[in-house]
Design a protein that fits this description.
transferase, Heat Shock Protein 90, 3 domains, rod-shaped, phosphorelay sensor kinase activity, four-stranded antiparallel sheet
Length: 464
């Protein structure tokens, strides 16, 4: 037996549902018809028995009803015996008319013969007064073989059973057809997905006109393809940019190595100069590699149990004295926490130090002489916010959306003496998001920049 695929399950479900509806409907129709025919059958028997009662109440009919008996004695029951043969012509096949006394004994009977194999299906009774017999009971019955109602029920039952068999076949065929037509768009989507290659993620699934579940499925997959395409493109650019960043210092080191080979032995000045350049570029490569490793480490999933807490105020007090040398001609304005209490955040101390160092050093680097860098701390609704505002050159609106891209540098930081590798803000954003925080930048060119860092507040019992 083949595997129960999704299409087979859908076909079977549709067929089963259709068959269940057909069975319930047929059962309802059969029971309703059976109840109606039974009522009709009893009504017909009652009507016929009422006619017999009217006929018996007629005085002129008594000679036909009471015939001389064969018994002895003066009792009228011995002189006259009831005879119902006059009603034989009025009885249908399978019907039987009986007259019973008050004790249930049969006084007279006519019609279908009694048989243990014949089941009495319907009956009607009437009480009447018969001269000489006081109260007697007329009983009119019909057996199951000759009952119109039973015959109609059997016929309808056979027809409904045949209808169920036909409905079952149609349900199976219809289920297969409906399942195939319903799954056709999904099979088309599967074919389109299989045609998409890793080296070309520009293709998108065709969406149906009706905005139904299939539309949502295709749209969701297209959104996933967009994210995947962007991720692959960022990865390619990252590799290209990293290669370029490493290629430049290697080319400089190679060039100075050739200079040392040619003139270094004869000219100590050339040797010293080349060694200084080589040391400088080696340091740049080490810093770049360290930043790449930090970025890769920051993108790894954070273990659930790894919840570290540090004091942000203490981190700032350690960092700020070390940033004075970055740009001594810029004023650093730091407003400590108003209450003087520790500002606890859910982030390791080394990570918070790295984040604040990147932001504060950038603000100091790109603020001109006589400018100010202000740092403010605020607690609100379970979060601690740090804002770093400078009066520097600012960032243009065109460059602002790309500020967190890896290896991206603004026009003001393109030179290698002042600008870094272009990884600082990317690392900062990754670290903040890894620990549930966020970073936002608001900047106006020529007026300055404000960086807002939001941390999740830590609990006092985790104080380190």
């Amino acid at each position: 037996m083949g595997t129960w695929t999704f299409s087979r399950k859908v076909s079977a479900s549709i067929a089963a549902a259709t068959l269940i509806v057909a069975i319930v409907t047929s059962g309802f129709v059969y029971l309703t018809f059976k109840h109606w025919t039974e009522r009709q059958e009893v009504a017909l028997l009652d009507s016929k028995l009422k006619q017999f009662e009217l006929k018996m109440s007629d005085v002129s009919f008594l000679p036909s009803l009471l015939h001389p008996g064969t018994g002895t004695g003066n009792d009228i029951r011995n002189i006259f015996k009831p005879d119902l043969s006059a009603f034989l012509s009025d009885l249908d096949a399978g019907q039987r008319l009986e007259m019973l006394d008050r004790n249930g004994q049969v006084l007279a009977e006519v019609g279908s013969e009694k048989s243990g194999r014949k089941k009495i299906e319907y009956r009607a009774e009437k009480d009447l007064d018969l001269p000489g017999y006081d109260s007697v009971k007329l009983l009119l019955t019909v057996d199951s073989e000759h009952s119109r109602s039973a015959t109609a029920e059997r016929l309808v039952g056979r027809l409904l059973l045949l209808g169920l068999l036909i409905a079952a076949g149609m349900a199976i065929v219809g289920g297969v057809i409906v399942a195939r037509s319903t799954l056709k768009p999904i099979r088309r989507m599967i074919g389109e997905v299989r045609s998409i290659r890793a080296n070309d993620l520009s293709q998108r699934l065709r969406l149906p006109a009706a905005k139904d579940e299939l539309y949502e499925l295709g749209e969701t997959f297209n959104v996933f393809l967009n994210k995947l395409d962007v991720s692959f493109d960022q990865q390619r650019r990252f590799v290209a940019d990293a290669s370029h960043e490493l290629k430049t210092p290697l080319a400089i080191i190679e060039g100075h190595t050739h200079m040392i080979q040619r003139w270094g032995k004869k000219s100590p000045e050339v040797l010293d100069e080349s060694l200084a350049f080589m040391m400088n570029e080696t340091r740049r490569m080490k810093e770049l590699i360290a930043q790449l490793l930090l970025l890769a480490e920051s993108e790894e999933p954070l273990p659930i149990e790894a919840v570290e807490v540090c004091d942000l105020k203490m981190t700032l007090s350690e960092l700020l004295p070390q940033t004075v040398h970055v740009n001594p001609e810029v004023k650093l304005d730091y407003d400590t926490h108003p209450s003087g209490a520790a500002a606890l955040i859910r982030m390791p101390a080394n990570a918070s130090y790295q984040v604040l160092r990147n932001i504060v050093e950038n603000a100091l680097k790109y603020t001109p002489k006589g400018g100010t860098v202000s740092i403010r701390l605020q607690e609100k609704e379970g979060r601690i916010t740090v804002s770093v505002t400078d009066t520097g050159m600012g960032i243009s609106a065109e460059q602002l959306p790309h500020i967190f891209d890896r290896f991206y540098r603004t026009e003001s930081s393109r030179n290698r003496t002042q600008g870094g590798s272009g990884l600082g803000l990317a690392i900062t954003k990754t670290i903040m998001e890894r620990y549930g925080g966020s970073i936002a930048i608001d900047s106006t060119q020529g007026q300055g920049t404000t960086v807002i860092l939001q941390y999740i507040q830590g609990l006092s019992k985790f104080t380190i």
